[in-house]
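Hello again, I could really use a second opinion on something today. I've been staring at a protein lately and its backbone has me curious. You're getting the sequence in one-letter code plus the fold written as tokens. I'd be grateful if you could look everything over and explain what you see. No rush at all, and the record is pasted right below:
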Amino acid sequence: MPAGKKVAIMQPYFFPYLGYWQLLAAVDTFVILDDVNYINRGWINRNRIAINGEPSWLTVPLQGASQNKYICDIDIAPDDGWKKRLQRTLATAYAKAPHSANVLPLFEQWLAQANGDLSAALHRSITQVAESLAIKTTIIPSSSIYPKGELKGADRILDICRREGASVYVNPPGGKELYDAAMFREAGIELHFLQPDLHQDELRSGASDGSVLSILDSMMHNSVEELAGAVKRLGFARA
């Protein structure tokens, strides 16, 4: 494991898949990048669960969502019954799941507070799951701590890392094409990529075809001890 303070920066997603939590567990500080543009039909306000073994969307409705707006400037739609629908959908889909008695109250608690600010609601969900998985990482939103100025892309990532006093910036494996390792080295920061070791074959899932689903599905079928162990089995590759 690389020495020094490790930082990761990632957009907030709606109860994201297990790999998101591996990244979160790998660092000392996790910055939720919420002052970037919302992505339509992405993972910010929806994710997939399993219904009768098939992937199915669980979606939080939004008010005035647009790709021209930052995530932190978008609100969740007023509750016209969608909270009960989501709760009922999840409860029905996982009625026979071994850990539903633990997961449903967590989701219901999140729903009860899911009002207004989308970013704040996503932040709460990330914190809730992190606490359940015994992840001690500090989680902060970029919009209130490091508000966006003129910097973009890798320049902004580097700026946040510097201001956090990071020695290491940790990125998911899919980010290898996004960043120039030399640029980070010049700033005195090591660029590392996770080497996934989620042992997915050892974890149970509701998807009959092996599809990657929300952490909600993983928590329904596996104990928090199993998942806590899985997210901490990781390796690093230096760029």
